[in-house]
Amino acid sequence: MQNGNILLFGYGRYGEQVAKNLALEGYNIIVAEENKNALKNASDDGFENLYVLNIHNDAQLTDIIMDNRIEKVFCAFDDEEQNIYLTITLKSIFRQIEVIAICESKETERKLKLAGANKVIDTMVVAANRLFYVLEKPGVAEAMDQILFKDRSIIFKEIRVTQGSIFDGKNLKDIDFQTTYGVIVIGMVDKELGNRFVFVTRGINHKIDAGDILVVIGKRDDVAKLEQLMRAKA
User: At what angle do helices 106-115 and 80-93 cross, to 10 degrees?
Assistant: First the structure.
């Protein structure tokens, strides 16, 4: 008996085990992965529905989800930052989609929940052979989580810097986003770093260029105002 389609992002040390366990439970697994060698491994393991993924291509993500009638996705990249970025992206496009994400720490778990993940699986707690149970039986949220996440006016948002923007060419650390605009920049997709998502806490003074994407958290109105400013010409 087939339980339906699950879209799995990542086929590394976590994704491989997720795919195999859920396939045994009767799910049809669609694998999306940036690494072609990892996709070959998935093919060798018998998975047929494979996509070479560009994590920053929203149109491709939309097509994969719509074409396969996906209602549940698993973010299982080995790189936790990719899982966070992907969760933010998916929830901004498909609010109703169920996102299950892998993490290795309580800090990443907190960020994934803020990003909108419906379920977060801590690899240090949940063994691979119990993933099906976690998928089907939602855990009870801790009281602190309810306090932290009950304010629905707090949102994550990806904001692309346009050509000629007043922020184009400025250094990230030179702008006090929290005081001036009421938002916190938690990371960015930096073209100079190969279009990879990085947290701003890593100590690099990133230069903001047209085409970069800032990932911010803040009140919905404040985020909307900043997005308008990002499009304003200097």
Answer: 20
Provide the residue ranges of all domains of the chain, joining segments of one domain with +: 5-124, 154-230
Domain 5-124 - what CATH class? Answer: alpha beta
Cα 75 versus chain centre, distance: 7
Using DSSP's 3-state secondary structure scheme, residue 91 falls into helix
pLDDT digits (tens, 9 = 90+) for 29-44: 999 999 999 999 999 9
How far CA 51 is from CA of 43, 59, 85, 94, 220, in Å, comes to 11, 13, 19, 19, 34
For domain 154-230, give the CATH number: 3.30.70.1450
Q: In terms of Cα–Cα distance, which of 157, 184, 183 is closest to 92?
A: 157
- How do residues 160-204 score in pLDDT, each as one tens digit? 898 888 898 898 888 888 889 988 787 888 777 777 777 765 556
| The residue type at 149 | F
0.90 surpassed by pTM:
no
Cα separation, 131 vs 118, whole angstroms = 14
